[in-house]
Write a structure and sequence with these properties.
76% helix; mainly alpha; globular; 18 helices; MetI-like fold
């Protein structure tokens, strides 16, 4: 008798997952051919046929719009300070988690494990940032990025020392106020030079999304609680708001805010166009966020409510200490998905309200005398899509990491 044929693990895996039957084999072959063709066309476009000089020559316009060159140093200072701010907050949070016993104390060191973890989490945005730096023709962005990285590392090292020494409610509240004041001061510094009415490029997209996310989240939570309230008037108002706003297209609301708002508000009180966009994005996303949070509230077992009552907690404490944290934890994927959708929808502000955001810039630079009529819209749109995808993908990966840390779906 002949010896049985021994298959390698790779062959076994292919047979089990891709070629289990002749139908699976046909689907796998067709999918492989289509994927190879798409990969070939993409690589050919990026490395051979694409004319990326339109991006290289207009990189500053794409990133920060028509922001005055004399005040770009303010943006550099903002990026550097925010890097240190994020590093300090990360260090404080890490120290608090270690003190609470949620994280292994050995994880605080800059070990190989930590470096590998950071690389796996942020290698895509780091690669995109490196690509943007390569496209620049001055040393300023390189210096800014290098200083920002160093400041972030220093903040991450200093953060645990601050977190271990700040104890008590008063000290913690004071620290929170100081940390919250940092982005406000930076915003005032930037706006003092140029009002955000004149901002543009990808910076405007990020600004609109950040402001809308910060404002829509608490509003959505309050609307969700209002819709489940036992007070008929509160429940009715919350339900009407949610259903009316969710039933209206976002594009129509942006057009209404841009065109028709002047008929209802006196000219002297009419807010600026970016402010209108932020208000619309906030109100629109809050309605969807309210339904997401309401679904999370419904997913909390009844026993949790009964246990909270048995402890003698007041209704507000039952909600904010027991029920709401579990509800928000259960719907993290849906929340992040809605916030990613909000970030991508900021491109509608250019079409509906005339803001000079990234999409408008991508279309405008193809009409420059050196590039007019050359069909370079593909290159500019591909560049914009890369920036949006990078931010969206990073948000998605970080939400998945948060789900694993909180044990969503496992306990």
């Amino acid at each position: 008798m002949s010896a049985p044929v021994r298959r390698t693990p790779v062959v076994v895996w292919l047979r089990r997952n891709l070629f289990r039957s002749w139908v699976d084999g046909v689907i796998t072959t067709v999918a492989a051919l289509v994927s190879a063709w798409v990969l070939y066309k993409s690589v050919n476009f990026v490395l051979v046929t694409g004319r990326w000089e339109v991006i290289e020559r207009n990189l500053q316009l794409l990133m920060i719009g028509r922001y005055p060159a004399d005040d770009v140093s303010r943006l550099a200072i903002t990026v550097i300070v925010l890097s240190g701010w994020v590093g300090v907050i990360a260090g404080i949070v890490h120290a608090r988690q270690v003190r609470a016993g949620r994280i292994d104390p050995s994880a605080t060191a800059w070990s190989r494990r930590r470096v590998v973890d950071l690389t796996e989490r942020f290698w895509i945005p780091a690669l995109v940032i490196l690509l943007l730096l390569v496209l620049t023709d001055t040393a300023g962005p390189w210096i800014m990025t290098g200083v920002a990285v160093v400041v972030a590392i220093v903040g991450r090292i200093v953060g645990p020392f601050i977190g271990r020494r700040i104890t008590g409610v008063v000290a913690g509240a004071s620290l929170a106020i100081v940390l919250a004041a940092v982005p406000i001061v930076l915003y005032a510094m930037i706006v003092d030079a140029v009002g955000f009415d004149e901002w543009g490029g990808f910076m405007l997209n990020v600004f609109l999304a950040a402001c809308s996310i910060i404002l829509c989240y608490p509003l959505g939570v309050l609307l969700a609680l209002g819709r489940r309230s036992r007070l008929p008037l509160v429940r009715l108002v919350s339900t009407l708001y949610i259903e009316l706003v969710r039933g209206a297209p976002l594009f129509v609301l942006l057009l209404f805010a841009n065109v028709a708002l002047g008929f209802f508000v006196p000219e002297g009180l009419t807010p600026s166009t970016p402010t209108r966009a932020i208000v619309v994005f906030t109100l629109f996303t809050a309605a969807y966020m309210a339904e997401i949070v309401r679904g999370g509230l419904q997913s909390v077992p009844t026993g949790q409510f009964e246990a909270a009552k048995a402890l003698g907690l007041s209704p507000p404490r039952q909600t904010f200490l027991i029920v709401l944290p579990q509800a928000l934890r259960n719907v993290i994927p849906a929340q992040i998905g809605q916030l990613i959708s909000l970030f991508k929808d900021t491109a509608l502000a250019g079409v509906a309200m005339g803001l000079f955001e990234l999409l408008r810039v991508s279309e405008a630079i193809t009409q420059q005398p050196d590039f007019r009529g050359q069909g370079l819209i593909g290159e500019t749109l591909a560049f914009g899509a890369m920036l949006f995808w990078t931010v969206s993908y990073t948000m998605s990966r970080e939400s998945q990491r948060l789900e694993r840390k909180l044990g969503v779906g496992t306990r």
